[in-house]
Amino acid sequence: MEPPVRGPVAFIGLMATGKSVVGAQLASRLGWSFIDTDQLIVARHGRISRIFSQQGEQAFRRLEARVVAEVLAEASAETVVSLGGGAVLDEGTQALLAGARVVFLDADLATVRRRITRDRSRPLLAGDPVEAWTRMDRERRPVYERLADIVLDTRGHSIDQLVTELSTQLQNPHDKLHNRKLHNRKLHNSELYNNEGDSHGE
Predict the structure, then answer these.
(1) Which residues pair with 151 in a beta bridge?
(2) What is the C-alpha separation between 197 and 121, in angstroms, rounded?
(3) CB-CB contact of 70 with 44 (8 Å)
(4) Using alpha carbons only, what angle is made at residue 39 by residues 202 and 102, rounded to the nearest 5 degrees?
(5) Which of 194, 63, 52, 196 is nearest to 126 (CA)?
(6) How far apart are CA 4 and CA 9, in angstroms?
(7) Where are the domains of the chain?
(8) Is the pLDDT of residue 174 over 70?
(9) How many whole angstroms separate alpha carbon 95 and alpha carbon 170?
(10) What class is the 9-192 domain?
(11) Which residues contact 133 (CB under 8 A, 6 or more apart)?
């Protein structure tokens, strides 16, 4: 039996799925540190929408990859990290995530529709946000699923339920962590989708 991975916990998934909220509450529950890489980029380099408009998406992705690499290299096993939705497209980031416990926070369009249609701060949702989100889900889902040790389906589950399930799994490291799923029903807990302002590129 391979020894369990003891790196940081890294949340991946599309924008508006609640990675920052669930990640922060998981860290609080466990008494661990929490880092949101998009918020770190904003603190160091300014608004992500401005980086997109002035330098373009590729410049943002290079900057994002450097920040994510720094965070993952320095994070202890008692750290929860929330990554921007597109961070996993970088091959270097994918390699670094092999040393982390990766949680794919999954949601369907019905769950996130309200938020993505009212949030105009995300540059990748310009134009038709529903079409853009659906396209990104189709393109990125195989990557998320391949990298994930744990897949949590947010539909029908409160933040507290998600955090409880995750904390249980993480505190039983001898359990195999691949693709444990919470299933079904539509999510009615709007706390997952509170507007976080312009701190996300995804």
Answers:
(1) 104
(2) 7
(3) no
(4) 60
(5) 52
(6) 13
(7) 9-192
(8) no
(9) 21
(10) alpha beta
(11) 14, 15, 16, 109, 112, 116, 125
